[in-house]
Amino acid sequence: MTQAGKSGQRTILVTGGAGYIGSHVVLQLTEAGERVVVVDDLSTGFRESVIGAELIVGNVGDRVLMAKVLREHDVDTVMHFAARTIVPESVADPLRYYGNNTCATRSLLECCRDAAVNQIVFSSTAAVYGIPEGGQAAEDTPTAPINPYGSSKLMSEWMLRDLAAAGGPRYVALRYFNVAGCDPAGRIGQSTRHATLLFKVACEAALGQRDRLSIFGTDYATVDGTGVRDYIHVADLARAHLDALAYLRGGGDSTVLNCGYGHGYSVREVLEAVGRAHGSPVPWIEQPRRAGDPPSLIAVSDRIRETLGWQPRHDDLDFIARTSLAWERKLASSAT
Ligand code: UD1
Q1: Catalytic positions, please?
Q2: Of the residues 258, 267, 284, 285, which should be mutated to test ligand 1's pocket, given the most ligand atoms within 8 Å of the CB?
Q3: What does the domain layout of the chain look like in residue ranges?
């Protein structure tokens, strides 16, 4: 057991800990000996994805519940994942995103302030940058979201910043680029039903659970006309949260950090990687651009490496494809 896990250790609350990214973070935290409690409404998460921690089923916007959880579990750190995350859905139903993401975060922050929570690690997104010049974004690149999802997260970042300045919890906001892959040991993965994420959809198409994948847009000014993204393995992303925790515990100042590898791949390159992992090509068809999609979105990721000492271990498109496909096969076999 680590120093952190010795008795007397206070608790980390993980909101959205039954979801794709949150559950991978919970796994790494509990493996490190941390005390963790999860609050998740299971709207998109799964009970069985929470390994090694207590799950409380509820909504982070429920002030009475959250005040009780913070008090009864002696929480000093909150990792806040609970959110809606699908860009096209946010374009179609913006108020749902401002409600679930922005308003619920405001309510949670009020509870954190009242309970004297010390530190917060917040799931933000590269979508706050919109369409950055040259397709690449550093943390000081002007924020200009082009969809309600990005706006809803940016407003949450502002609340964190202003609350910290007013004596509230210190925080690290992690701006995720495109998260992909699954636990390398195959225990948990991306289980979302009706998922829209490229790797997930590509794996489903490879395994014949969909007829084909739609390539959304082939006329972008990119290497092969399709959208380019900085795909980061979920285990590396999860590790960044533990690094952020160590940083905050060490007294680090509040900060915003990009989470990406610093290079990108096109939709076609991803399909080729999934095809290689599967041993046969992924069927696809070309479709028009999808609303709210930037052509290219790649991180400048120097700051997170310097600030947290973060060292990714799975910067390998084929590894991401293999772990994604392995999980999809596991899901398929447990469904039959
Ligand atoms: C994802 C995240 C979003 C985050 C963003 C950061 C989710 C659900 N989305 O959005 O929260 O802000 O990364 O960059 O977690 N594509 C296809 N066909 C498909 C699916 C996708 O061609 O069936 C293309 C898209 O047009 C895009 C790329 O693949 O060019 C990635 O799309 P997707 O996996 O849906 O992620 P983002 O929309 O980038």
Answers
A1: 149
A2: 267
A3: 10-180+231-259, 198-230+262-335
- For the Cβ of 178 lying below 6 angstroms from any atom of ligand 1, the answer is yes
Q: Tell me the pLDDT tens digit for each residue of 140-169.
A: 999 999 999 999 999 999 999 999 999 999
Q: What pLDDT is stored for residue 263 in this prediction?
A: 97
Which residue lies with its CA nearest to atom 15 of ligand 1? Answer: 85
Residue 125 Cβ < 6 Å to ligand 1: yes
Q: How confident is the model over 67-121, as pLDDT tens digits?
A: 999 999 999 999 999 999 988 899 999 999 999 999 999 999 999 999 999 999 9
Give residue 2's pLDDT. Answer: 34
Using a 6 Å cutoff on CB, does residue 267 contact ligand 1?
Answer: yes
Q: Which CATH architecture has domain 10-180+231-259?
A: 3-Layer(aba) Sandwich (3.40)
**Nearest to 25, CA basis, from 179, 197, 202:** 179
Q: Look-up: residue for tokens 């289980």?
A: 191
Domain 198-230+262-335 belongs in CATH node 3.90.25.10: yes
Which helix (H) or strand (E) is 3 found in, with range?
none
What pTM does this model have? 0.95
The pLDDT of residue 222 is 96
CA separation for the pair 221, 133 (Å, rounded): 13
Domains 10-180+231-259 and 198-230+262-335 fall in the same CATH topology: no
The 10 Å CB-count burial string (b at 16+, else e) for 43-71 is ebbbeebbbebebbebbbbbeebbeebbe
Report CA(201)–ligand 1 centroid distance (Å): 10
Mean pLDDT across the chain: 95
